[in-house]
Structures are given as C-alpha cells and as structure tokens.
Specification:
The two termini are 25 Å apart. This protein has one domain. The chain is built from eight helices and twelve strands. The longest helix is centred in the first third of the chain and has 20 residues. Helices cover 28% and strands 22% of the residues.
C-alpha cells in the first residue's frame, strides 16, 4: 500500500497536490456544528448506559465541543486545532435515550472510576472521547492513507487503555481502521473491551468540502471489567469482501462485518462506488436524505438497547494505570489475512 513504484510520476505529483489542498480545506472548514450534533447524541447514549458521573478526557479536534464545555477549559492545543481536555463529567440535563426498563438507574456512588493519583494526574477516566484529526479527508497517496490509518488505530488502543474498566470510549475515526482486512488493531480492541456499536457517517457528513468526504466511523466501546467474560466480537474483528461496481479493473474492497450484523453496525446511507481520479475505485456511503441527527438517534438507540440487554452498563473500575497489562496483539503480525465473513451485496 505504500509502494510508489507502480505510480506514474505525474500522477504522484497530482496526488500530492490534491492531498495538500484537501488537508488545507479540512483545517479551514468549520465542523463544530456537526460535532455538536454528534456530542449531544454521544452523551445521550452514554448517560443512558450510566456514564453520568466521574472524570472524562476528550482529545482531538474540537474537544470542548464534545465535552460540552467552554473552549477555555481545553488544557492543550496544537497547530491543527486538536486539543486535550480533562474535567469532571458535567451534571447537565441531557435527555437519555429511550430504554425498555425505565426504572433502571445507576447510582452515582457506584461509578466513580479511577480518580486522581497523589500527584493530581488522572490515570484512567470514566469516559474517553477521541475525535481523530483528518478522519474525513480522502487521501490519494497510498502511503499517506496507510500512515493515517496506522496512527488512528494506535491512538484507538491508547485511548481504550486510558478508559477505566466499566467505562466507555467514543471514537470518531476514518473508515480505514475498521475496513482494513488486517485485523490486529481490532483484535487488540476486542481483547480489552466490548464493542457496543459502530455507526458509519456518510460522505461529507462533517464537512461539505471537496476532498473531505471520506466516510467516518463513530465507535462505542465499553472497557471490560477484569472478571468479565468477553462477548462475541467476531463481527467487529472480521471484514467482508465485495466487488466495486467498476468492472475495469475488478477491484475488491472491504467492509467491516459489523455493518452486516445490526444492531452492532449501522450504515447511515447507501453503499456505492466512488471512481477515483487516481488509483482504484473505493466504496462510498451516499447520504440517506434524512437529517443526520435523526439517523444517528435511531442508530444509537438500537446500540444502547442492545448493550443494556447484554448487561454492558457502566460499572466501577479498580485497576490503576500501573497495573494495566500490555495490549495483546495479533500473532499474524503485519501479514494481510484473507477477509473473513459474508460477502457484500451491492
């Protein structure tokens, strides 16, 4: 994926220019309005699952928007408008998602999570939100796309490791992390937590700008308690192979199998094929025509109901950062295994 030997020099120059323009436009376009919509729905789901108390850390683009706090609460900023915010979870009246058991509540005292160490630095958090930078940029250079995918995959694991057992991680990332047929990152995620659901946003959902129309995934994970058995994560780990609609060349694309197994996976649109100016065609996700907030509400309501039925609610955490075990990685290393699971019917 990173080899340029089979790319024409002029095409490579055009790819470099297109990617640079897309990154520039990504940073110039304000996505805070859509991020605010996502934040409301994320917190609505998390509070229904019992994550209404304790400590949170929010990292990446617009952390204050996802934390629903003023911008001056962000402790650190970088040049790409990404930041880090750590704070108590606000006690605000965000409406919870509907449940089948309205009498079920979570005692605030049972979900304190891991608090500050003696030096005042919080090691683990009850809620972790990670909004990856450049997740919606459609990169043409294979090496740039692969580097971003690897960076987001590693950061996904880092943020899950910062989540207290019984706490929740919400991550917004490029589709490439979940659709990669190499499953090592997803296996490591499944070893630490239970994936509650994955929601794929359609092309251009965050920024209606050319080059910033890569589908993005919202992933909800509950960090597993030490004495809990793992739930079935096979749909999340595997990918399904499908042919694009472009017959010349016939190109195999991959889709995370969770999207073929609702209520774990939800596509907020219709799968289509995008013909790229350079390189092979790719899967795209055309918008449904409905309001994003309505589609997201429906999808997350199903995710929450499924999580409650499986008993994956917020729970107390006991393990400190120094007691965490190394993340188990796939024995396959960097080999690219054959895609597993059902095929995609376009």
């Amino acid at each position: 994926m990173t080899d340029h030997d089979d790319i024409d020099y002029e095409d490579l120059v055009h790819m470099l220019q297109a990617d640079a323009l897309a990154e520039r436009d990504h940073h110039r376009a304000d996505a805070s309005g859509v991020h605010a919509v996502l934040a409301v729905q994320i917190w609505r789901a998390l509070r229904t699952l019992g994550a209404g108390h304790g400590r949170m850390t929010v990292t990446g683009v617009d952390p204050h928007v996802f934390a629903r706090l003023p911008r001056d609460r962000v402790q650190t900023w970088d040049s790409e408008n990404s930041g880090i915010l750590r704070a108590d979870i606000p006690q605000e009246g965000i409406r919870s998602a509907p449940t089948d058991d309205p009498d079920t509540t979570t005692d605030a005292n049972t979900f304190a999570g891991e608090r500050a160490r003696s030096d005042g630095v919080v090691s683990l958090f009850d809620v972790v939100i990670y909004n990856a930078a450049l997740s919606d940029v459609t990169f043409h250079r294979p090496d740039r796309r692969a580097d971003l995918q690897q960076d987001q995959g590693v950061n996904l694991l880092i943020h899950l490791a910062r989540t207290v057992p019984g706490g929740f991680l919400a991550a917004l990332m490029s589709r490439d992390v979940l659709d990669d047929p190499q499953s090592a990152i997803r296996e490591a995620v499944a070893a630490l937590g239970d994936v509650l659901g994955v929601v794929r946003l359609p092309d251009g959902a965050l920024r209606n700008v050319a080059g910033c129309d890569n589908p993005t995934d919202l992933l909800l994970v509950r960090r597993r308690l030490d004495d809990e058995p793992a739930s079935d994560q096979s749909a999340f780990i595997h990918t399904a192979a499908g042919m694009t609609n472009d017959p010349v060349p016939e190109v195999v694309e991959y889709l995370n199998s969770s999207f073929l197994h609702p209520p774990m996976g939800h596509l907020l649109g219709t799968i289509d094929t995008r013909v790229m100016p350079w390189g092979n065609p790719r899967f795209s996700l055309q918008p449904s025509g409905r309001a994003l907030s309505d589609d997201l509400t429906s999808a997350l309501d199903q995710v929450v109901r499924s999580a409650r039925q499986r008993g994956l609610m917020a729970g107390p955490g006991h393990r400190t950062a120094t007691e965490q075990k190394p993340l188990p990685l796939s024995p396959h290393g960097h080999d690219r295994p054959e895609a597993q699971g059902p095929s995609i019917d376009l």
